Amino acid sequence: MVVEATGRRDVPDVGDVAALPERWMWFGKFVVGLALRRYDVHVHGSDLIPSQGPVILASNHVGYLDGPLLFVTSKRGVHALVKESMFTGAMGFGITRMGQIRVDRFNVDPLAVKQALRLLQRGKMVAIYPEGARGRGDVSLTKGGAAYLALVTGAPVVPVACLGTREDGASTQSQPPRGTRLDLVIGAPTHFAATPWPRTKQQVASVQAAIQQMLAAHVKLACELTGQTLPAAPPEESEPI
């Protein structure tokens, strides 16, 4: 979370943050979309995403394909917070050019937060995974990033459920077999009033709890809608992911 210690500002100063590139985003959607054709992809509720203005997409996190699935199927451009270990080699080159946000998930990352805020102030759409890491995807635990962004900007929070992106008990770095059904289920947006500075830890915690409850309930309903089940907890990995 950004500490706004430089003055009494309702919104942190993001004027010194460079705009993220977008010119390759739609080409990236095309390329990644070709790769996802090996799966049976189903999207539900896409019309519930506001067609314009700032939006925070809050998704559960099950497997490696959650990000690509959300990125490709959205009718709008998506700037997602992506763990910094992904920004290496050809993958890092591509997602950087497609305007994704590099984030350190284990430490306070003011730059990533400011980049997300600048995008939302410009009416863009930002995707965040409140669970903070891939797992069961049941949203039993969350972090406060989505809550902070919602409190600062007043942008609506849209719940997203990614289902089928990891086999039961498989590694979080694995991909399901060809032909696997993947479901992306989008829910109705929830609005949290923009809260002026100073925003307290209690206010962030309250909105964080509301987002957790909303997203967990949405994932449960998405499973009922699609007939999908959440995978078992993944095996222990050699390093945090």
Unreliably modeled segments: 1-8
Compute the separation of the termini in Å: 20 Å
Beta strands, count: 7
Q: Strand order within the widest sheet?
A: 1-7-6-2-5-3-4
* Sheet of most strands: 7 strands, mixed
Annotation field: number of helices: 6
**Portion of residues within helices:** 25-40%
> Which range does the strand content fall in?
5-15%
Describe the structure.
Strands 1-7-6-2-5-3-4 form a seven-stranded mixed β-sheet, with helices on both faces. The chain has helices spanning 25-36, 66-73, 89-97, 110-121, 145-153, 201-226; strands spanning 40-44, 55-59, 79-83, 101-103, 125-128, 157-163, 181-186. β3, α3 (89-97) and β4 (101-103) form a beta-alpha-beta unit. The chain is globular, with a radius of gyration of 17 Å. Helix content is 32%, strand content 15%.
Strand and helix map with partners:
Layout (H helix, E strand, L loop, with lengths): L24 H12 L3 E5 L10 E5 L6 H8 L5 E5 L5 H9 L3 E3 L6 H12 L3 E4 L16 H9 L3 E7 L17 E6 L14 H26 L15
Parallel strand pairs: 1-7, 2-5, 2-6, 3-4, 3-5
Antiparallel strand pairs: 6-7
Helix pairs in contact: 1-2, 4-5, 5-6
Q: Keywords for this structure?
A:
single chain, seven-stranded mixed β-sheet, disordered N terminus, 6 helices, alpha/beta, about 240 residues, 7 strands
Quick take:
This protein is α/β, with parallel strands linked by helices and 241 residues long.
